[in-house]
Amino acid sequence: MNHVYYDSDADLSILDEATVAVIGYGNQGRAQAMNMRDSGVHVIVGNVHDASWEKAEQDGFEVYTIAEAAQRASILCFLVPDEVQKDVYQDSIKAVMEEGKTLSFSHGYNIRFGLIIPSPTVDVVMVAPRMIGVAVRQLYLQGSGVPAYVAVWQDASGLAREKALALAKAIGATRRGVFETTFAMETEIDLFMEQAVWAAVLCVFTIAYDLLLEEGYPPDEVLLEMYVSGEAAEVFKRMSGIGFFKQLHLHSRTSQYGQLTRSRRVFPSDLRDTFKEILEEIRNGTFAQEWEEEKRKGFPLFKRLLEEASGHPFNEEEERLKKLLASGP
Ligand code: NDP
Q: Is 107 in the active site?
């Protein structure tokens, strides 16, 4: 069982003398920066000079280039996209990561796969909210927070965990519950969910759509039933609120019987082996290597797959359907 921390386990005073630089004012960066400032932390922002820079200024932050913010801060919350972190670290951060500083991530990817190797004289921690940025902000403003993970990769100061917990408290996460983990565990589970579970969902919905249309069913009804009505989103919400199986009682008995009897049949018997293979590729670094190589070549496969996905008939049909729904009866 993971150890879980709440407000009373974290002490914000460890951040009293700190300047925290939020590097990357995007989904997480904006939400975390605003929450930390409202919690009384001195926050500055480091970003490339673009629309996000302007936004941070409009939100009232002092904004600097990434190198300058990194230089001014004692704690860096590194919140640029994972696939650019390695280059940004090399170009703008490595040189100013002096002894005693703290580097905090919201996802363990670059550390887990050795793409960033910080100096042993700095603390390296993770504070990873399990939620999109807008909700991190929204729930904080409502007096609540989102669950999060904390992990310590490197504890040079002897106070790395205390600092991570204070950052978690400052973004509101200890109001809900902060689970202790490791960089490896957080990264591997996260990638597995994306590459096995969500990949299966993409595949299942596409197969179902193609089959039902081939069998003469109308696209409107198929898409409404699958996800456009919002019922599927509601079911996921109930899974987290009531329970994965307990929410079955909200469906008709016919639906419950159909789901329970057929769930054992619909997936190929070797699915478990495929999932295991995917997990192994994550663990042994094959996926990280493949993604680095794809990045080096300028993302040819990624671009082609995105293009194929945006060309799927789903896209046109759902636009048409959304308009029908918006016009209403
Ligand atoms: P975003 O895609 O929102 O981007 C963050 C910021 O990085 C933006 O300000 C962006 O600028 C800037 N940026 C993009 N490319 C570069 C570059 N090449 N050099 C310098 N700056 C760049 O990131 P997220 O907030 O989604 O992710 C940040 C971290 O948080 C990641 O580690 C991610 O795994 C983690 N995380 C994200 C969650 C989420 O909900 N999105 C949930 C939990 C963790 P611009 O906007 O101008 O492009």
A: yes
> Is 196 in contact with 278 (CB distance < 8 Å)?
yes
How far apart CA 163 and CA 169 sit, in angstroms, is 10
Q: Between β-strands 123-129 and 148-154, what pairing exists: parallel, antiparallel or unpaired? A: antiparallel
* pLDDT value, residue 328: 54
Among 3, 42, 107, 312, the active-site one is 107
pTM of the model: 0.93
- pLDDT digits 0-9 by tens, 227-264: 999 999 999 999 999 999 999 999 999 999 999 999 88
The reported pLDDT for the residue numbered 264 is 83
Q: How far is the C-alpha of 237 from the C-alpha of 242, rounded, in Å?
A: 8
Q: Is the CB of 115 under 6 A from ligand 1?
A: no
Ligand 1 atom nearest to CA at 84:
18
Mean pLDDT of the chain: 95
C-alpha to C-alpha distance for 4 and 198, rounded to whole angstroms = 27
Place of tokens 């002897």: 158
Ligand 1 pocket test: pick from 22, 23, 28, 84 the residue with the most ligand atoms within 8 Å of its Cβ.
28
